[in-house]
Amino acid sequence: MEYGKEQLKTFRDLNAWQQCRKVYRMIYDCTRQFPEEERFGLVSQMRRAAVSASSNLAEGFGRSSSQDKAHFYVMARGSITELQNQIILATDVKLINDVNSQTILKELKLAHKMVVGLIKVTKI
């Protein structure tokens, strides 16, 4: 698969996947600070959404048809959007401070843009 002019050999070569991996590490670290009562609630939801974003990118990369690839990339975009919502909600109830929230949301915005670009390139 080619993306721009560079040759992509594995899903790990996708900039969008690399960005989602970075976000996952941020989410994992951030949610470690959450109270125990959120362990099976918001912590689990946020970590699953972060895993889902990168996993859907990997699965999409492994698909043969452009339509299949695009489907999984769209799913990754949905997981990123879900995670943006969860960060906002966690900030509302003071589980995340404003500085950390803005940092994570900035990285999620970049991930979102990358995935949208990947969707556009795939649908061509």
Explain how this protein is built.
- The structure is a single chain.
- The protein has 124 residues and is mainly alpha-helical.
- It has four helices and two strands, in the order ββαααα.
- Strand 1 and strand 2 form a beta hairpin.
- Helix 1 packs antiparallel against helix 4 (98-123).
- The longest helix is centred in the middle third of the chain and has 27 residues, at 66-92.
- It is elongated and about 45 Å long.
- Mean pLDDT is 93; it is low at 1-5.
Total count of strands: 2
Spatial strand arrangement across the major sheet:
1-2
Order of helices and strands, N to C?
EEHHHH
Average pLDDT over all residues:
93
Helicity, as a percent range: over 70%
What percent strand? under 5%
CA distance, first residue to last residue: 13 Å
Radius of gyration: 15 Å
- Shape category: elongated
How many separate helices? 4
Query: Which residue ranges are poorly predicted, with pLDDT under 50 across at least 5 consecutive positions?
Result: 1-5
Descriptive key words:
single chain, 124 residues, mainly alpha, 4 helices, 73% helix, elongated, disordered N terminus
In short:
With 124 residues, the protein is mostly helical. The protein has helices spanning 15-31, 42-61, 66-92, 98-123; strands at residues 2-3, 6-7. The model is unreliable at 1-5 (pLDDT under 50).
